Amino acid sequence: MTTRSTFLVGTVAGLIGIAIAAMPPVAGVLHRFVGSSVPGRVATPPQTAADEDRAPEGVIRMDEQQVQELGIRVQPVAGGTIVRNVHVPGTVVASGDRLVRVPARVSGIVAELHRRPGDQVAVGDLLAVIESREIADAKADLLAAQHIEQLARTTFERERRLWDRRVSAEQDFLKARANAEDARLRLDLARQKLAALGLGEAEVAALARQPVTALPRKEIRAPIAGQVTERSVDLGGAVSPETQAFVVVDLSTVWVETAVPAADLAFVREGQVVTVSGPIPGLRGEARLIFISPTLDSQTRAARAVAEMANPDGAWRPGIFVAASVQTAEQPVQILLPRDAIQTIDNRPAVFIRTERGFERREVTLGRTDDRAAEVVSGLAGGEPVAVARTFLLKAELKSGSED
């Protein structure tokens, strides 16, 4: 090799050495791209601040302000009472104890009408006037009986004074006494006849002061306070004693008629509380069972049951269809939660426990339930703070977090 060749080889070798010295170590390059200098190990991305703040599974980060804005209500776990209910449909009807069908009671012609359906009436208010020969004859008989009784009484008093002085014969005294007793009996019978025709004591007492033209007049008056719901007579129309002239109903108390299936009759008793819900939102009331039929309907195989309910404002109108819930039994439990507090997550019942930084999902085991609450037999301890309202928002947030 010549001196020139030796120089070139040396120069190239020096340049290669300088390049190798300038390169980083191989291990450092692998570590930079793979994350480890150990062959076959998968790299782990470096953690960020967001990754470090991510909530663990089943935990929802939420401060107090967010809880208030979302309307999530929290309360400590406590005991309560499970209520067993029997649910049946029903209908509001007028109370059989507060409905009066007002008959004409006499034959005659309707001379006056003073009330129409829908009118409110008080006890004794005038409904109609009937002109009747029957009532005129009965009044005339009473007036005649009063006159005869007064004359017989006067005669008896005179004969008694004479007999006491031994001036008249005993036979005259006894005859006068018999006539007075007979006259009093006839007067009582005349009064009873007028009472059967619907005249009150005040009307009978006023007969003697009335003109003869008022004898055929028969007044029909309201027997109870309430509302006129029916009127089946017209002005100038003929009536008979059996004619139902008016129907007056006191709707301050109504009945709820239901049909209880045979399978539920063992749990239903008279005196139990019935919660009634109407077709209008917010229309709810409380009734009490007063009657359960001892027999079943041959077609429905259910027993008629009647509950009595106060109706002071008249909101419960006869004919309204309602949903009735009969409270049949109460059972105390150690831990009771509203149904809104319980969510189904992964096919398991769960609740949300309030923590310092938010909420934590916890699976629970349920026991007995009713329409509004459920018993928790495991998974919770008394006094723990649990979300009991709008928990569906927490379920949605939990699901959203797991998808991220």
TrEMBL record:
Residues 253-329 form the CusB-like beta-barrel domain. One of its GO terms (cellular component) is outer membrane-bounded periplasmic space. One of its GO terms (molecular function) is transition metal ion binding. The keyword RNA-binding does not apply. Residues 337-395 form the CzcB-like C-terminal circularly permuted SH3-like domain. Keywords: Transport. GO terms for biological process: copper ion export; plasma membrane copper ion transport. The keyword Transport applies. NCBIfam families: RND_mfp. This is Efflux RND transporter periplasmic adaptor subunit. It comes from Dankookia rubra. The lineage of its organism: Bacteria, Pseudomonadati, Pseudomonadota, Alphaproteobacteria, Acetobacterales.
